[in-house]
Amino acid sequence: MPELGVYSPEELAYLESLQPLTRDYQPSDEVLAHLGAVSLVIVDGVTSAGKGTHLDKLFQHNDELGVGALHRVMSFTTRPPRPSEIIGPDQYEAHLDVRWPWVRDFLTTGLRERRFVQAISHPSGDIYGSRAHAYLPRPATSVAEFTAAECERLVEEGVFPEARAICIVPYAGPSWLQRWVERDAPNGGEPKDFGKRLVESHGSLETGLHSTAHETVFVTNAYGEDPGIPPAFESMAAVLRGDYDPNLAAASQDRAEKMFTYISKVMAGEIELPWQLVPSS
Question: 82, 92, 113, 252: which has the highest count of C-beta atoms within 10 A?
Fold first, then answer.
């Protein structure tokens, strides 16, 4: 649940009151009718895989990549923006402050009247979702940054029966974890929310690798370390065009399987880390 250092007890109680409305949430028939004309691609990946960075580059270079008409879906969350997040016209996630009455009316009414496409209560307690008008009908392809589990649910419930997923996998393999730790905890301590984020990364790979509901294509973010692997945004463009190199796809999926096995061993305590890891449920 949210920390009291972030939310007041009253704000915390309000977010908790929304959980029954997000549990098993289903959009209205009116929203579903609009979504029937939408072609959706979901971009997912483990923590620090570079999802946002390469989505930005995909849209910046859209014309030269020959992908066609793309539309980036604007989502919303009650999570406060991180220090690294710049609030401006290029932001694709609206941060809603639950201290404002209009925000509470927007969330409560939208959930009760099922105006949203999807709405979930994150383990942190924050609400994540999106509105129907954030998705454009064909011939545009709407691109959204969701979790793999959310993609699975949207497909299984018939909201987006033909949704596809692109999962970005770090090139670094196990050393990706060390890079992540060094970035978030430069003094050698445990990074904030380590267990929770590791569980989320594990779930992302598990759903992408084992889903029977939707197709997931894996691409690699090589961080410029391997000249033989194109930047992830170029691979994403190739997936959207339908000419993604099958060898690159196979290598990326193999990398995802190895990373999934590694994270599983970390979570099971079979690989020692410099601190006691207790994953969040």
Answer: 252
Q: What is the CA radius of gyration of the chain?
A: 19
What's the pLDDT tens digit per position in 75-118? 888 987 766 555 544 455 688 899 999 999 999 999 999 999 98
Looking at 1.10.10.10, 3.30.1330.40, 1.25.40.10, 3.40.50.300, the CATH number of the domain 38-73+140-276 comes to 3.40.50.300
Within 10 angstroms of residue 8's Cβ, the number of other Cβ atoms is: 12
What does the H/E/C string look like for the chain? CCCCCCCCHHHHHHHHHHHHHHCCCCCCHHHHHHHCCCEEEEEEECCCCCHHHHHHHHHHCHHHHCCCCEEECCEEECCCCCCCCCCCCCCCEEECCCCCHHHHHHHHHHHHCCCEEEEEECCCCCEEEEEHHHCCCCCCEEEEECCHHHHHHHHHCCCCCCCEEEEEEECCCCHHHHHHHHHHCCCCCCCCCHHHHHHHHHHHHHHHHHCCCCEEEEEEECCCCCCCCCCHHHHHHHHHHCCCCHHHHHHHHHHHHHHHHHHHHHHCCCCCCCCCCCCCC
Q: Could you give the C-alpha distances from 67 to 143, 228, 248, in angstroms and in order? A: 12, 22, 19
The residue ranges of every structural domain in the chain are 1-35+74-134, 38-73+140-276
Tokens of residue 74, six digits: 């604007």
| pTM across the whole model | 0.81
Residue pLDDT, tens place only, 134-153: 999 989 999 988 777 777 87
Report the 10 Å Cβ neighbour count for 189.
12
Asked whether 88 and 267 are in contact (CB, 8 A), the reply is no
The answer to whether 29 and 122 have CB atoms below 8 angstroms apart is no
